[in-house]
Specification:
- By secondary structure, the protein is of the alpha+beta class.
- It is about 20% helix and about 30% strand.
- The chain has 15 helices and 48 strands.
- Its EC number is 3.2.1.40.
- It comes from Pedobacter zeae.
């Protein structure tokens, strides 16, 4: 059935509820987008919540927030530190403005709301947060290390004993590191994080993490243990990015304050200093880029226990802090999120085995094995196999430049101690892999159960889902999410094996895919702070962030480093929070001004262009100028939002200048064709809305014709991939967009799936000779497109954060049903449709305290029924609630 969407007059619509009205309640109370966080530095934290009310038209009309250090006083609504009083507002994002917050303090906050009937919540909702160090002068510990020797390979242990003579009320450990660490108390690892602290430009900003260690400490004698890893700080592996020459490079170091509060109200801080002892650990080598080597014969049993004899250990040395800016790591941490059993095992002989996890992941493997002392076991991790069944890493070690053979790529090395069956999992490394080839210097017996995989990534909550009647679409969506998460490690990366670099172009392409699917604001706020750390005074940003200095001369430009504008803008659209936009405003302005000064005509040739295209190559000037235009448009909008009216006028005029110059050079207005009319050349201007209003229809028509001439297959690179499906769908060619999206032959996403992919690849041909990582997110816009086009869920920039939801679901030839859901700041949005005998049924959910506008088809001989009532209006405003809408043959 060919269903057309028509523009008609808006009509307000509200109906009686489908089901029984429930009393409103509150949920998802968060501080700084985290649930009951500890260790915050922000003196003005943000509070958010959601109204949980399924009744039709449910909305908040007022709120009240109370804050105190005593939760009992909040129950009585008797807050001493902050009481907003009743504020008539439907806001569910409020910034703290009470008495100044103190460090090392736990605060409780309560929120009450009134609904549309002025009924106030009758239950008390209380959440908490805890401040951390807050100011540099509050640190008591010293920065310590074991040596200044950056070439020393083994990872160091550190330990200290102390006695807690009184009953403990609470205890917090604050630890900052140059490198990576694992913290333990009395023999037990603290927390379930991996790879802390997150990677930053170490000499400009260092992160610390806070742990609640109350239950780890005993009254009496205790021991603290710290194991340090290199991470990106002391990069010893040699590759083309030169991280081994980083200006900050040194032997890892750390600073720790363990603050104990006793029952009598007194406090004591156990801190890092000269009284600590150090020794080398069994981790004889660790590289975040390659692997980890572990000699179990060197284990020091009980090294982090109180009664361990450390008389043979060495004294520590003092070190200066890596930076003068040590701040809280307030974000979702990296974890071992999913344990994956081996799917199969192939035994070549009694010293060689290959395990297959059945899917490509980022993370680590864990082997459990026994054998004679001194047996050397190598675990080689890769994404594919040679024809003979052995692991092939030739597609992912392309940029590695080893100086010898002691540090094999993605190959952990374990030396057994012969004492018992032992397990090994790397501490300070992760890899990209599906297969693990285990080879040993002596015979060992392995079964499939002896090796597990752990999918590691920033543990961001899932916020979206897509379900389709077409299996290939479901596989593409699954693979897209796998690649997105595989490339989220406190910053967005390009691939988890060959580079692990924060390539800006990949991240700007995937921003919407990430925000529809996951709660990533804490990661992006951290990464944009990395941008601000890296930006040169003239506005230039590097192509990889963070960086040691590589990338200022190659790979950057508007098509890549537009992250500085595109990501804050999308966070604003998805969360309705302008903080990141405000934090980055001057950086965006400086960046835009640099381009304007360097390219005064309005056209810029700065950039990489449409990276890794199928066959057609587009001018860099065409694509980069479109991104430059997008940056200036975002800057103008941000200026208006932030009340900078002079800048708004200035950059609005600058955007027009760019648009006019671009179209004068590249648009054949009579024919409606940009340049030579390739898919990228047509779709990128459409997507970034630089096409003159009067030419949009003809350009879109010609794009559709070009795609049809290309047999509904892709002929784009990275930048074209971002644009192509959206440019078609947004301009009336939904069926053509779907044909491209659901293709199963080369070149297409489906072609990868048909050939066994569980992640997205870096290149369209699976037998390419270069650029053939099998876990890249750079072609991942299709994930967002599924939400926006067949799902039809879009934020409204005039009411961001899905305060008002734009619903424009597209019924596509070849699909029988589709469902998209997204949990926005107000709750869960659902847009689902399926074909029924005589038409289409839609199931829509709009969360409380938000509204929506839906575009419905108007077709001759068909009627629209909303919750059973006839309504033949194409564009309809909906209040919060659940709706069943049927588009079916008229009676």
């Amino acid at each position: 059935m060919n269903l057309r969407f028509l523009q008609v007059t808006t009509l307000f619509f509200a109906l009686a509820p489908l089901s029984k009205t429930f009393a409103q309640s509150l949920t998802a109370l968060k501080t700084e987008y985290l649930v009951n966080p500890i260790g915050l530095d922000n003196p003005s934290p943000r509070f958010t919540w959601q109204m949980n009310d399924t009744s039709q038209g449910a909305k908040q009309t007022a709120y009240r927030i109370l804050l105190d250090t005593d939760s009992a006083s909040l129950v009585k609504a008797n807050a001493k530190l902050w009481n907003t009083g009743w504020v008539k507002s439907d806001n569910n994002l409020v910034i703290y403005s009470g008495h100044p917050l103190k460090p090392f303090t736990k605060y409780f906050w309560r929120v009450d709301i009134a609904d549309g009937g002025q009924k106030k919540s009758n239950k008390t909702y209380i959440a908490s947060f805890e401040t951390g160090i807050m100011k540099m002068q509050n640190w008591q510990g010293a920065w310590i290390s074991d040596t200044e020797n950056t070439q020393l390979k083994p990872a160091p242990y550190f330990r200290k004993t102390f006695t807690a003579n009184k009953k403990i009320r609470s205890a917090r450990a604050y630890i900052a590191a140059a490198g990576l660490y694992e913290l333990s108390i009395n023999g037990k690892k603290i927390g379930n994080h991996r790879m802390d602290p997150m990677y930053t430009r170490f000499d400009r900003r260092t992160l610390y993490v806070t742990y609640d260690v109350t239950n780890a400490i005993s009254q009496g004698k205790n021991a603290i243990g710290v194991l340090l890893g290199n991470g990106w700080y002391n990069h010893q592996s040699t590759a083309v990015w030169y991280f081994d020459r980083a200006p900050w490079r040194n032997r890892p170091a750390f600073c720790l304050d363990l603050r104990i509060t006793y029952e009598d109200g007194t406090t004591e801080t156990i801190k890092s200093g000269k009284e600590w002892k150090t020794a080398l650990s069994p981790i004889i080598f660790n590289s975040i880029y390659t692997a980890e080597h572990y000699d179990a014969r060197l284990e020091k049993a009980g090294w982090n226990m109180p009664n361990f004899d450390d008389t043979a250990w060495k004294n520590v040395i003092y070190r200066s802090a890596p930076s003068k800016n040590i701040v809280a790591q307030a974000m979702h941490p990296i974890r071992n999120v999913e344990e994956i059993a081996s799917k199969s095992l192939r035994k070549f002989n009694d010293t060689t085995y290959v395990f297959d996890l059945g899917r490509n992941i980022s993370g680590v493997s864990k082997i459990t094995v026994s054998g004679p002392a001194g047996t050397v076991i190598k675990l080689k991790h890769g994404e594919r196999l040679y024809a003979n069944g052995h692991v092939d890493i030739s597609n992912i070690d392309a940029h590695y430049r080893p100086t010898d053979d002691t540090d094999p790529f993605q190959t952990d090395i374990l030396i057994l101690n012969g004492k018992r069956e032992q397990s090994f999992m790397p501490h300070f490394n992760y890899k990209g892999f599906q297969y693990v080839e285990v080879s040993s210097s002596a015979p060992i017996e392995l079964k499939k159960e002896n090796l597990l995989g752990y999918f590691m990534h920033s543990d961001v909550p899932v916020m979206g889902d897509v379900k389709s009647s077409e299996p290939i679409i479901n596989k593409i969506y699954y693979a897209t999410n796998n690649s997105y998460l595989s490339n989220l490690f406190g910053y967005p990366t390009d691939c988890p094996q060959r580079e692990k670099n924060g390539w800006t172009g990949d991240a700007q392409i995937a921003i919407e895919t990430g925000l529809y699917g996951f709660d990533g604001i804490t990661i992006y706020e951290k990464w944009l702070a990395d941008h601000r750390d890296e930006q040169q005074p003239n506005g230039v940003l590097p192509s990889i962030i963070p960086t040691d200095g590589w990338g200022y001369e190659w790979g950057n430009g508007p098509d890549w480093t537009s992250t500085i504008a595109i990501i804050p803008w999308n966070v604003y659209l998805f969360y309705g929070d302008k903080k990141l936009l405000a934090d980055c405003y001057e950086n965006i302005r400086r960046y835009v001004n640099h381009i304007n000064e360097t390219y005064p005509t309005g056209l810029t040739t700065w950039g990489l262009g449409d990276w890794i295209p199928v066959k057609s190559k587009s001018p860099v000037e065409l694509t980069s100028t479109c991104y430059y235009y997008a940056d200036v448009v975002i800057l103008a909008k941000a200026a208006k939002i932030l009340g900078k009216n002079d800048d708004y006028e200035k950059y609005t005029a600058q955007a027009k200048k760019i648009k006019d110059a671009f179209n004068a050079k590249y648009l054949n207005k009579e024919k409606g064709i940009y340049h030579t009319g390739t898919q990228t050349e047509m779709s990128v201007p459409l997507y970034w809305k630089i096409v003159p209003e009067e030419s949009i229809a003809l350009v879109a028509e010609n794009l559709a014709k070009r795609v049809e001439a290309d047999n509904f297959h892709l002929d784009v690179g990275l930048l074209g991939t971002k644009a192509i499906l959206n440019a078609l769908s947004e301009n009336g060619y939904n069926d053509i967009a779907y044909k491209v999206a659901a293709q199963k032959t080369y070149p297409s996403w489906g072609w990868w799936m048909e050939n066994g992919a569980t992640t997205l690849y870096e290149n369209w041909p699976i037998d390419a000779k270069s650029d053939i990582s099998m876990n890249h997110i750079m072609f991942g816009e299709i994930g967002a497109w599924l939400y926006k086009s067949p799902g039809g869920i879009k934020p409204d920039e005039t009411q961001p954060g899905f305060k008002h939801v734009i619903l424009d679901p597209h019924i596509m030839e070849g699909l029988n049903s589709f469902e998209a859901s997204h949990i926005g700041p107000y709750g869960k949005i659902v847009s689902a449709w399926k074909r029924i005998n005589n038409g289409i049924r839609y199931d829509i959910t709009i969360p409380a305290n938000s509204t929506a506008t839906i575009n419905l088809p108007l077709t001759r001989g068909m009627d629209n029924y909303i919750n059973g009532k006839l309504n033949n209006t194409g564009k309809i405003d909906l209040v919060a609630g659940k709706y069943v809408i049927e588009h079916k043959a008229g009676k």
